[in-house]
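Support reply, case 0932

Customer input (verbatim):
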Amino acid sequence: MDGTVSTADVGVIIVAAGTGSRTGSTELKQFRWVAGKPMLLHSVQRCMERSDVAVVVAVLPRSYAGDPPPWLFQCDVDRLLVSAGGRERGDSVYAGLTDLPPEVRIVVIHDAARPLVDAETLDRAIAAARAGSGAVAGVPVTDTLKRTDEADRVIDTVDRTRLWLAQTPQAFPRDMIERAYADARTNGIRATDDAALCERLGMLVVMVRGSERALKITEEADFARAEALALGSR
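Our regenerated output:
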């Protein structure tokens, strides 16, 4: 699917304002090449494949927002905005929200650190948001889960039934995610997950199937894993 609708009403916020310090590299991880192109460019181009996407907001570190890397413009520049990120992830998402044009009704939030997002996951997340709920891409937990104490001694085995590993993209009706972020900023609430801000207000959020390929690149070894996954899908 290419997201064909009569009106382009989806705004995508790609969070790429972190320092990526856990990779041990001096280069920003979102600018490093993986699977044939810079990490951030994967997500921008994937989202711009959709005809219902009105704009993609790439939220970059403030020092790069005024002078983005030139490869970022290897896409539809008429649908690209660059925003300056904040100190924490939530500040960066909020900056992206404030830059969305009025025609956007559906908001997709995605981490640049997950470059291998597929079109089908975007389809499922956006469809759920169009139906009126928040949507979190993820995969069901399949490994056995153990709970430990502060000394790493096993206390018990956690029932994994109905447990999911949350990923991005996450998609929302615009009024839902704007209300959630406004409330969070008013009350000083921080979250590593956008949907959590909606959940705390009692808003409906559903899980949609993501992909095992959509790993989050956090450490140096993850670059090799992403390369292998990308090659394996060809």
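We compared this against your earlier run and they match. Two observations from our side: The helical segments are 39-48, 62-65, 89-98, 119-130, 174-187, 194-199, 221-232. The first strand starts at residue 10 and ends at 15. Please reopen the case if you see a mismatch on your end.
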